Amino acid sequence: MSTGPDRRDVVVVGAGLAGLAAARHVAQGGLSVEVIEKSGGLGGRLATRRVDELPVDHGCPVLEVPAEGPLADEVAALDPVQLDAPGRPLGLRLGMTALPKRIAGDLDVARRARVTALVPSDDGVVVLDDVSPSPRHAACVILAAPGPQAAALLRTAGQEGRAAALDAALYDPALIMLAGLPAGLDRPAIRPGGGSCALVVDEGAKRPIPDGGTVIAAHLTAEVSRDLIDDPDDDRIMADYLPAVLTDLGVDGEPSWTQLKRWRYATPRGAAADGSRPLEGRILLCGDALTGTGLNRVFDSGLRAGDAALRMLRR
Predict the structure, then answer these.
(1) What is the pLDDT of residues 39-78, one digit of tens each?
(2) Is the model's pTM score more than 0.85?
(3) Which stretches does DSSP call E strand in the chain?
């Protein structure tokens, strides 16, 4: 429908699970769509980094999805590993990021670009970011960012009421300690932590680890993470909290490497209040700010937003 290098039918802000589901649904419906993502990766907390070429999940630790449905089909295509843990969750051999990469396919994604403002126009929304030399014009925008970021952008568009409703979407942060260990662990793959640690995930249960070792991802509690989220001293945090985790695991010897990952908006603990009107107007909303936790609900919210954009622009 739209023409010209700076015009799209739909711009999606955020390349997490909901944003990618919305964008792909719009593209499959025949409209032009671009995703703008402030980070360098896809999938939000479905995140994997490589350490010595080994995939290590440093966000969402496992997949818990229904046995049937659109998201279950996407996961099944990636040949998941069923883990020895309560609820029989799934892991991915290539890492959690394999799922958003599959959904993204060949979508047009602008990475490392932070959207700074949304300006309503007579026939759509002007989208401003901190990288592009000229603004984009979209007939419709889908906001798939965490609640506080989406609320800030709604305020730039003069939509204070909807933004205030999103303010109810609260999040706990998370600090995740990654460590390479010299030997594997006895199962289970996921075990509760103790004290300052909420849970420990054995990455070796998802994929082979060279030389008989393993990698753990130890998630600090929400309370500890809130206290430390703005503390820049990674080495001190690891020194203060990792030894107790290793002792609880019965690990002898020092880790071969360690890393610390911070997530400011890790776990939703409150959804948007009534009044956010997610599927009204030319700025649509989706994601965990509306649904709370649950990958399937998040994915479905993206599909609903994409469907609303298709209905709007096909009139």
Answers:
(1) 999 999 999 999 888 899 999 999 999 989 999 999 999 9
(2) yes
(3) 7-13, 33-37, 48-51, 54-57, 81-82, 90-91, 108-111, 115-121, 124-129, 136-143, 171-181, 190-192, 197-202, 214-220, 257-268, 283-285
